Amino acid sequence: MAEGGFVQEESSVESVSLSLDSLVLECPICLEQLRHPKSLPCLHSFCQECLSSYITKEFSGETASVPSFSCPVCRRVTEPVNMSEDKESWAEQFPTNNLAVEMIRHLQKTGESITCKPCERKGNNKKAKFWCKLIDTYFCEDCKIDKHDLLHTECEPENITEINKSVIIRREASVTGCGKHKEKIEYFCEDHQLLGCSKCIIVNHRKCELVTSADDFRDNLIESCKIDDLLTELQKCVDAMETLINDTDEQLLSMTQDQEITLQCLTDLRTKINERFDILQKELTDRLIASFKKEKENLDISRQKCERLMLAMQKTLTSSKDFTLKDDTLGTINLFQRGQVEVASCKELIQELEKSSRTTSLRHEYDTNILAEDTKTSLNMGKIVVCQLQRSLPSHVYSTPLSERQLKKFNIRVPSDENDCAALGVVFLSGGRIVVSDNANRKMKLFTENGDFQCEMELTGGNCDLCRVDNSTVAVMLTKVKTICIVHVGDSTLTYSSKIRIPNVTETCHSVTSNGNSFVVGTVNSLYSIPKTGGEATKIHTIESKCLCFYRNQQNGHVFASIDTSTTEEVAVIRLSDGTYKDVLKVGVVKGTTGIDVDRKGNVYVCGRNSKNVIQMSGDGTNIRELLTSSDGINRPRAISVWDDKMVITESKLSDQRNYVHLYKIV
Fold first, then answer.
1. Which of 337, 413, 359 is nearest to 618 (CA)?
2. 457 has which bridge partners?
3. How far is CA 88 from the centre of its chain?
4. How does pLDDT run across 494-517, given as a tens digit for each residue?
């Protein structure tokens, strides 16, 4: 970046009303009038003391080698002028906002009465009402008529009554000179995005390709509608921040209600048992309040970030409404630059919240049998459960839909295949390894996430569902021979490990998942448990339609099963947990449920073959959102697998996309 007499906000002349002058001169941190104002490179100004306290607080607990900090308003990464000095002195290093200093001085000065100069010479301090720019003299109404208008017929004095005080302030406080060379600022270097005088151009920017007059650059901004486009973007960002703030408030309200309900639940339960539970109740109450406080602090931080940035953008928008763009070159350019920074920061903040936002619920769980007579249940107060799921931001906030996050679509039909593929199962492993079971060609295939084919393995008997056993092992269900085939997955190899036959099941087996020391297998009407060491299958549940896919959540042991039906109100997904069964999703949003998987946060992903969509839902089925539809190019999704922040989807043999795997980035 070239150096020299270029200035940023110091050179602007704020064409705004008196009330807006006060708004511009307000510190975003303490919300008071600026004291010793310091300007950061992003053009946002703060009290020196407030900025110093903010920097010190931000680096609390950090190492001494941290090289930068983020602007409290737009969060732009900012480096100190001299990093070798203590962080406590970083704020002092930044340039003083001289325009703000002058405007504050003149704001205070305007409270004083301005007297008529001719009357003042006569010893009469009569209040002035007009100012002549030509001779720089103030007149009362009588002296204007009797003296000024008789001698200076060629000029018209300005009215300086109360309504025009702001004009006086901006005129007297205007700083349009170069901070280094004391010459008028007339040029703008587009290469470095800086304003400067003629000496600055000659000394520091003579090799730059795009140097124009400030007026020409300002005119270009207006004629090309860049200012209008920026203001539109700023308004969108303000709307986005407002939506996020409202969403945060709603989440906080929901959590507050959860807390109140849970506390009442604890109180009601307490009245049904004796006083020996006092200590346990206190422990649980403390845990609940601590959890609430922790999550509330996280929400408050997110809200504060959104609020600061929204207020800054609102000020920029308010300033733009009162700007006389053709008459205020420097102000227009500075508004454009500041707005660009704020829009970029808004988009960055939304992306950050998309990754980190969680829906938190608090509840109290206890065994109701403790209230029954002659029960053998141990007496206790239960536990406080803190449940967190990925939270979807409001749909009209700046965000990128999953359909636009497709990383790759690659062909899984290889030269040795005789038929189009029917990829009924897929597993995504670490290191970008993708294993596909191709029933049409009786094969298992290994690809990289870049779509590079590594190897294949022929399978005896029709193959269907795949499941992850561990990070280097998968199991495939061989439907016709009723056998679970265990396969070791290397970086570029597939190797048989073992086979487990299912001797006592007569129905066709479709799905399989690893469940601790056993496998769970789904058929047309039943779910079975088979020991990993082999042996007889044990029936564990009866279902209405065939189960095409399973997935076991490694975090809590819940097994989710997809039930292939399109009949309204029939069960589409069930959950098995410690011998209990729960219907978590009915046919509606999804029809013809096929592939299913769970990410590390507990979100469940379900493919609807007949509804031609992919949804994401919470583990209890209460929160559902549609991720992909046929309009996104997903015709008949069949199998799905999630690893870390990526997801792969195959399509049914009836789809024109049956020979492809879709790879997406999940935020």
1. 359
2. 444
3. 31
4. 999 999 999 889 888 999 999 888
Residues near 461 by beta carbon (within 8 Å), at least 6 away in sequence: 442, 478, 479, 480, 481, 483
* Residue 582 CB contacts under 8 Å (≥ 6 apart), including other chains: 574, 575, 620
- The partner residues of 387 in beta bridges, in order of sequence, read 361
- Token pair recorded at residue 387: 């449940």
- Are the beta carbons of 352 and 198 closer than 8 angstroms? no
Question: What CA–CA distances, in Å, run from 291 to 294, 296, 300, 391?
Answer: 5, 8, 14, 18
3-class DSSP assignment, residue 629: strand
pLDDT winner (highest mean) among 58-72, 368-382, 480-494: 480-494
Spatial distance between the Cα atoms of 43 and 340, rounded to a whole number of angstroms: 11
The pLDDT of residue 165 is 53
Under a CB-based contact definition with an 8 Å cutoff, are residues 365 and 625 in contact?
A: no
Tokens (6 digits) for 263: 């506390």
Whether the CB-CB separation of 489 and 426 falls below 8 Å is answered with no
Q: Which two tokens stand for residue 299?
A: 């929400």
Measured from the Cβ of residue 541, the count of other Cβ atoms closer than 10 Å reads 17
Average pLDDT value over all residues in the chain:
84
Cite the beta strand spans of 366-462 per DSSP E: 383-390, 406-411, 423-429, 433-438, 443-448, 453-458
CA distance 151 to 155: 10
- Share above pLDDT 70 across residues of the chain, in percent, rounded to a whole number: 87
Written as six digits, the tokens of 418 are: 């005789």
Rounded CA-CA distance 651/423 in Å is 7
C-alpha 478/C-alpha 462 separation (Å) is 6
Three-state DSSP class for 187? strand
Max Cα-Cα span within the chain: 120
Structure tokens at 583: 């219907």
| pLDDT band (50, 70, 90) for residue 17 | very low
Are 43 and 342 in contact by the 8 Å Cβ rule? The answer is no
